[in-house]
Amino acid sequence: MAKILEAAIENTRANMGNLQLVSGSSSLLTASAQRGFDKQVLDFFNSVSHGQAACGTTLREVRRIVVRDVTKSRLFLRTPSLEILLDARVRAVQSTPLVARSGRVVGILSTHYRTCRVLSKDNRRVIDQLARWTA
Predict the structure, then answer these.
(1) Of 32, 46, 102, 114, which is least packed with CB atoms within 10 Å of its CB?
(2) Which bin fits 12, alpha (ψ -120 to 50), beta or left (φ > 0)?
(3) Per-residue model confidence as pLDDT tens digits over 53-111
């Protein structure tokens, strides 16, 4: 898992990232691998439910969520998640579902950026390939 995360971070020039797995039948995401986050961020996002932040929304909607600027996204406005991300110097994030052959989401691969940005087509292609390998 750590190697997949490293490849995603390096290939998209992300500053940090994490890979979360769906915990049993509970639909909660729990951290499996991470790079670049401090304990406060890890503790806060260690257990994420449907619809919470970008990763929880990805889990619920089973599609990639790209947030160009966390300060302007409805996913983060007036939420504790926004303060945590800003403290970690995160301004943009993408979360991609890890979908098994059965169609079930087994996890989420997220990359985080210190500047506002949108993923290029090449970045999306790399992340999609890594997500398929991981699932």
Answers:
(1) 102
(2) alpha
(3) 898 899 889 999 999 999 999 999 998 889 999 999 999 999 999 999 998 899 999 99
Which pLDDT score, from 0 to 100, does residue 56 have? 86
Name the domain count of the chain.
1
pLDDT classification of 14: cutoffs 50, 70, 90: very high
Q: Which domain holds residue 96?
A: 2-134
Residues with Cβ within 8 Å of 87's Cβ and at least 6 positions away in sequence, in order, are 40, 41
CATH code for position 43: 3.30.450.40
Asked whether 105 and 121 are in contact (CB, 8 A), the reply is no
- The strand pairing partners of 99, in sequence order, are 105
Burial of 102 (0-12, 13-18, 19+ CB in 10 A): exposed
Query: Torsion angle of alpha carbons 36, 41, 44, 48, nearest 10°?
Result: -40
Q: Using an 8 Å Cβ cutoff, are 4 and 133 in contact? A: yes
